[in-house]
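Quick start: read one record
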Amino acid sequence: MDFQAEKAQVRAWYAALDAAAPDEIDSVAARFLAPDCLWRGFHPFGELAGPGAVAAAFWQPLRRALTRMQRRQDIFLAGRNEIDGFTSVWVISMGHLMGLFDAPWLGIAPTGKMAFLRYAEFNRVDAGRITETAMFFDIPHLMMQAGLQPFPPQTAAHLVQPGPATHDGLLFGPQPAAEGVATLAVINAMIADSDWKSPLPLEQELAHTWHDDMIWWGPAGIGATCTIARYARQHAAPFRAAFADRSTTTHRCRLAEGHYGGFFGWPNFTVRHKGGFMGMPGSATTGEMRVIDIYRRAGDKLAENWVFVDLLHFWKTQGVDILARMAEVPRT
């Protein structure tokens, strides 16, 4: 299966959505989204049911805030979902939604300047309609562009993140099936290694499935880093040291096509924060990590990883409401 029909459906949805005026989005959503569609988005959106709710709660307010919006895709692929026995077909898009930040959004004051909302989206397509969506986006990064500092200084760097170094992430056409199989195998090997139970030193564990010059494009508040050594120092080791009682990893969707693949969970796992991560205090309350990971494979190992974590949701479960706190802070 080459997934061309499903890709065409999602591309048509994007074209119609991006061309529509805000007050037209509800009718466009009704054309492309199934009446009983389920949409999952980062806090404060959560789960939305039906095209009308998706348009009214997310797309219309966002489009009114970020005027003249452009979709700048870096990765686009499709495949069958390993989690349901390769039954359903999903289409993945990743990039930035860029616009002029002209009106408030989620209590974030506008700047009147260009702003980039980093996003990754999974869409399940059934019989020509989108029936399920995971739309994850980096709200803290938008806050930082608006002059706010939602978190203490991060351990790595955060930027307007580029797409793949190879500039070949838009898989609009069919891809060799064997390449997708190989990519999914490496992703699964990496997941098996990442249970925090390996007897190997961290850098040796990572070297099993990652190139030495890997790039990890993490979310705002954590940051991006490159090479196994710096990734271990600037994220993986501090992250593992700050948490306990990690649950088994579960995903709603996991797929690959060509040299690209990814997954999302709702949540991916639960964990208890012992203290220190992102400068925050510990808690006895278990929190959820909702994550999208997108990967590029080079040869037999992973070369790049774009990561979306619902940090606003996680910290709210720990008693810290970042959105409410930022609404009270003037821009720098």
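DSSP finds nine helices and 15 strands in the chain.
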